């Protein structure tokens, strides 16, 4: 038995992220070389994976594995010959699980083009599709193909210098490197850490601006002034100059920190200076960010929304570590 995909003699396109507004969302080449691949998925179209083989092949089964959240039980396979259009061959009904699922076709087909369509699917947690048109299974190859395509691009996996196909598989064998699960976990951190935090902050900021009309007017005046200086264009440099806006966002993050507490596990016994209190190895330490941000000792009248708490002088007058919306130290938010 041989795998059609074994020698890399195929071209793959995915719709795993459906929003085609690449200007807005940037990172267009997350998966492959196709403009249709992008970060965000919100168009509600079915996702699909298209495989263009180098020559017509006989396909008798395929294997699919999902990673991350997936919804899409009503799926079908389309196939076509060299110049023919794609036709629906069979429905298939995968389960919303992460283990490998095998689908045997009712009868083998001859095809050059295949399209796996996942109707009603969403990809909130950036599922990875690992697929094998069968004769036989070459899972490692497919995985390494996906990863090598990823790492060839300038996407965020590049941040993990350790991510090279061989490292991924060494990791699976217990040696250093990132495993697929670890990479998937990173993807999830990006979605949850990067999206929810920002959207919640914007919501609370607008809520406070709606309640505090004077502050709203000040922000608008500043924005209008700086936009005019930059010819009406929103630019990185221009936004950096919006100091009062920065204060407003900082005050929003004080009053409503999206990450309300930080948690760490103590790795060795530690005596708190000038006390006989010992934090023992293994203890879970919780840092109450919300509590600090609303402590009247550091932020008098803490319920009041007051961006002046973040002018230069006020910031200098407080201990640094009482304001922790993005955490601190080595694990500080990369979006900070
Ligand atoms: C208002 C927006 C944001 C807030 C309030 C926020 C908050 C935080 C906090 C408090 C941490 C540290 C957690 C800890 O120490 O245990 C963190 C970590 C992280 N954040 Fe954010 N975040 C924001 C935006 C973003 C964005 C836009 C991204 C991605 C582009 C992002 C990606 C991450 C990642 C990857 C980590 C883990 C860093 C590490 O463990 O080394 N965050 N974030």
How would you summarize this macromolecular structure in one to three sentences?
The chain is α+β, with helices and mostly antiparallel strands and 336 residues long.
Please tell me about this protein's structure.
This protein is an alpha+beta fold and 336 residues long. It has a domain at 10-153: Jelly Rolls (Sandwich), CATH 2.60.120. The chain is built from nine helices and ten strands. The strands form three sheets. Strands 1, 2, 3, 4, 5 and 6 form a six-stranded antiparallel sheet that branches. It has a two-stranded antiparallel sheet with strand order 7-10. A two-stranded antiparallel sheet has the order 8-9. β8 (270-271) and β9 (278-279) form a beta hairpin. The chain binds protoporphyrin IX containing FE. Protoporphyrin IX containing FE binds next to α4.
User: Considering DSSP H and I runs of 4 or more, what fraction of the residues is helical?
Assistant: 25-40%
Number of helices: 9
CATH class of the domain at 10-153: Mainly Beta
Secondary-structure element pattern, one letter each: EHEEEEEHHHHHHEEEEHH
Shape field:
elongated
Largest sheet: 6 strands, antiparallel
C-alpha end-to-end distance: 52 Å
SS class: alpha+beta
What bound compounds does this protein have?
Answer: protoporphyrin IX containing FE
CATH superfamily of the domain at 10-153: Galactose-binding domain-like
Estimated share of beta-strand residues: 15-25%
Which fold name is given in CATH as the topology of the domain at 10-153?
Answer: Jelly Rolls
* Low-confidence sequence ranges: 16-44, 122-172
Mean pLDDT: 75
CATH arch. level architecture of the domain at 10-153: Sandwich
Give me the oligomer status: single chain
Rg, please? Answer: 26 Å
Pfam families: F5_F8_type_C_2, p450
Cofactor: heme
Organism: Coptotermes formosanus (Formosan subterranean termite)
Binding site for heme: 333
């Amino acid at each position: 038995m041989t795998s059609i995909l074994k020698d890399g003699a195929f071209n793959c396109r995915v719709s795993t992220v459906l929003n085609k507004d690449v200007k807005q969302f940037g990172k267009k080449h997350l998966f492959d070389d196709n403009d249709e691949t992008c970060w965000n998925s919100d168009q509600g179209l079915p996702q699909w994976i298209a495989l263009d083989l180098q020559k017509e092949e006989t396909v008798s089964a395929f294997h699919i594995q999902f990673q991350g959240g997936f919804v899409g039980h009503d799926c079908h396979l389309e196939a076509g010959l060299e110049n023919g259009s794609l036709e629906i061959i069979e429905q298939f009904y995968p389960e919303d699980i992460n283990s490998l699922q095998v689908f045997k076709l009712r009868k083998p087909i001859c095809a050059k083009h295949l399209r796996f369509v996942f109707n009603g699917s969403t990809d909130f947690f950036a599922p990875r599709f690992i697929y094998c048109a069968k004769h036989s299974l070459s899972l490692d190859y497919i995985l390494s193909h996906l990863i090598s395509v990823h790492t060839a691009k300038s996407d965020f996996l590049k941040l993990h210098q350790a991510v090279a196909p061989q490292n991924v598989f060494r990791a699976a064998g217990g040696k250093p490197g990132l495993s697929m699960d670890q990479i998937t976990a990173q993807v999830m951190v990006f979605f949850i850490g990067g999206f929810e935090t920002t959207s919640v902050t914007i919501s609370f900021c607008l809520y406070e601006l709606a309640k505090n009309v004077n502050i709203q007017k000040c922000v608008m005046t500043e924005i209008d002034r700086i936009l005019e200086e930059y010819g009406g264009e929103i630019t990185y440099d221009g936004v950096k100059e919006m100091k009062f806006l920065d204060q407003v966002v900082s005050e929003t993050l004080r009053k409503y920190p999206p990450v309300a507490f930080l948690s760490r596990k103590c790795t060795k016994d530690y005596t708190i200076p000038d006390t006989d209190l010992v934090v023992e190895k293994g203890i879970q330490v919780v840092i109450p960010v919300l509590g600090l941000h609303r402590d009247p000792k550091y932020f008098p009248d803490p319920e009041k929304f007051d961006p002046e708490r973040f002018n230069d002088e006020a910031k200098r007058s407080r201990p640094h570590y009482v304001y922790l919306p993005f955490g601190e130290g080595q694990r500080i938010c990369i979006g900070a």
